[in-house]
Write a structure and sequence with these properties.
single chain; alpha+beta; Helix Hairpins; 2 domains; 5-stranded mixed beta sheet; 5-stranded antiparallel beta sheet
């Protein structure tokens, strides 16, 4: 079944920057974590590779693994150079076999690279001294770059927001609403938070299947501050692009909610943004979220349970989906 264009009262969004031709795009537009779901080809590897951005955004364990790998690799290279020059140009070595000689050269390289220089082994002759000098220069530059990257990763403004796993169709005000919720998970409280949601649907227009995008009006789209969980509510009425849709219609239209959040982080003193996405298979029909917070025993503070972000119970809808 091919879906016709939804209710004309729904406001079309032509400013998404996403393509409308369904044959030119595949899968969801954004991954669950907000990263665009696309693979870039057609550029030479070095032009496509942004080393600085990659090192800033890669997972923490990968970043530190890269540092360790670089440290071992560069010292391995210089150790080979010292062996190529000749171990007789490294004074103070006490190695007896080739493996021990390589080990001495490797650790001398590490001491030179880090400018530690314990003093037992020292370069002798022009070639060994020049190599050690170049290695010390590379070491100083490398540590400056790594320090800058560490600071950049530590101080880079980001929105520490978690989103519920599912978006729910919930009974609301004698009707139905589509809801999801989000919560800040560190003490970076946001100010002047604004949420915009776009609904992507595959619909038939002029006899062709196209991607169409619609603004999703929210019951409350702005908040002065965000210190706890926030449930975003889209009421499904005549102005909703989902008005009159059944579960089957939503699945056939491969509906996807594109979430865009922007706010001012008082810790970073900067504006931060966050993105998320919900596909039709992540919708739950007939449910409602459970509370995430409650007062403490003496009723003086509020306890927020972030691990309950995804918790919901079954709730009967007034209409059949």
């Amino acid at each position: 079944m091919l879906l016709k264009d939804p209710n004309r009262k729904a406001q079309v969004n032509n400013e998404t920057g996403l393509g409308t031709n369904t044959s030119l795009s595949g899968g969801r537009f954004f991954n669950k974590d907000g990263v665009p779901n696309q693979e870039v080809n057609g550029l030479p590897f070095m032009e496509r590779l942004n080393i600085y951005h990659t090192l800033l955004t890669m997972a923490r364990w990968k970043f530190f693994a890269m540092i360790v790998f670089f440290f071992v690799a560069i010292n391995f290279l210089f150790a080979c150079l010292y062996l190529l020059i000749g171990v007789d140009h490294l004074g103070g070595m006490v190695a007896g076999n080739n493996l021990e000689k390589f080990g001495e050269a490797f650790f001398f390289s590490a001491q030179t690279f880090t400018t530690v220089g314990y003093g037992r082994i020292n370069p002798m002759g022009f070639a060994a001294s020049l190599t050690a000098s170049l290695e010390a220069l590379v070491g100083l530059m490398s540590f400056a770059l790594v320090t800058g990257l560490l600071y950049g990763r530590f101080a880079r403004p980001r929105a520490y927001i978690r989103y519920s796993k599912n978006a729910l169709f919930v009974p609301f005000r004698d009707g139905v609403a589509l809801m999801y919720r989000m919560v800040p998970y560190t003490k970076n409280y946001l100010l002047n938070v604004e949420v915009k949601i776009t609904l992507a649907l595959k619909v038939v227009e002029d006899g062709q299947m196209k991607n169409k995008f619609f603004n999703v009006p929210l019951d409350i789209a702005k908040a002065t501050t965000m210190t706890a969980n926030w449930t975003l509510v889209h009421i499904i009425n005549e102005e909703s692009p989902l008005y009159g849709f059944t579960k089957k219609d939503i699945e056939e239209a491969q509906a996807e909610l594109l979430i865009f959040v922007q706010g001012f982080d008082e810790s970073f003193s900067n504006t931060v943004v966050s993105r998320a996405s919900y596909r039709f298979e992540e919708f739950v029909y007939g449910a409602k979220f459970l509370p995430m917070y409650h007062p403490n025993e003496d009723n003086t503070r509020t306890i927020l349970h972030i691990d309950r972000l995804d918790d919901y119970v079954v709730a009967e809808l007034p209409v059949k989906y």
